[in-house]
Design a protein that fits this description.
single chain; alpha+beta; 2 domains; six-stranded mixed β-sheet; 32% helix
Length: 254
């Protein structure tokens, strides 16, 4: 079956957006960076992939790279033991949480950037701005525990960096780092930012875009689930019932 023309147009538009997205710089002549690819296609055989970021710098500072995935509201649940059973009893919703976050640096972040700079640029998972919705009446320590749980869950899924990756200099000007995307990564537009820092402050910066998109049968199933969720759920139930019935018939004949 050929891919619908509308989907091809969407993929081409996203790729063009990634390639033509403006590179925001403080001093454009000093820092230049690019990705080995700007489009990651998720197929039924997708098991994760790597993207190489490479660049050049005329400065004497350190390089820090961050990647933020698509943002969405995220609910974090806390389980309590009730009558010997662990149940979800309490939750906090956080607004605009990046689904994916990665960071790499050419040295220790605490040496490269001042705390206020790290907070402003979200350099490190501990500096991610996680804004709770309707947190009235909750203690700061309680909110912090939900934030920690959110980060741990993302790290368990390999969607958040546990330790900063390495930005390696190849000679005095060339640098590179490898960005890892697991199989569970979600489709969307990913913002890749490169910062050059000296004496704890940003002296140059650049931003580019990476697109992750589902293609093929996987895309058809994803679109069906998103656009007709009720029918998708009913179909899943019917398939499960039929599969159970067929399994029963096979076992009875065995």
């Amino acid at each position: 079956m050929s891919r619908p023309p509308a989907r091809i147009a969407v993929l081409l538009a996203l790729l063009i957006l990634a390639l033509l997205a403006p590179r925001e710089r403080v001093r454009a002549e000093d820092l230049a960076a690019d990705l080995s690819k700007h489009l990651i296609a998720i197929t039924t055989a997708f098991v994760g992939t790597e993207v190489v970021l490479f660049g050049t710098s005329d400065g004497q500072g350190d390089i820090v790279v961050t990647v933020h995935g698509p943002r969405q509201d995220t609910v974090v649940w806390r389980k309590d033991r009730v009558a010997g059973i662990w149940l979800n009893r309490d939750s906090v919703e956080f607004a605009d949480v990046p689904d994916y976050y990665a960071i790499a640096a050419s040295g220790p972040l605490e040496r490269i950037a001042r705390p206020d700079v790290r907070a402003r640029l979200e350099l490190g998972v501990e500096y991610l701005r996680l804004e709770p919705r309707d947190a009235a009446g909750r203690e700061a320590g309680e909110i912090a525990s939900f934030e920690d749980a959110l980060v741990r869950n993302k790290q368990r899924q390999r969607l958040y960096t546990e330790e900063p990756g390495d930005v390696n200099f190849i000679g005095p000007r060339l640098f590179r780092t490898t960005l890892n995307f697991p199989a569970s990564v979600q489709p969307g537009i990913y913002q890749v930012q490169v910062f050059e820092l000296e004496d704890g402050q940003v002296t140059d910066a650049q931003r580019s875009t990476l697109v992750i998109s589902k293609v093929g049968v996987e895309a058809d199933i994803f679109d069906f689930a998103q656009q007709a969720s009720a029918l998708y759920g009913l179909t899943a139930i019917v398939i499960a019932v039929v599969s159970g019935w067929l399994a029963g018939v096979i076992f009875r004949r065995a």
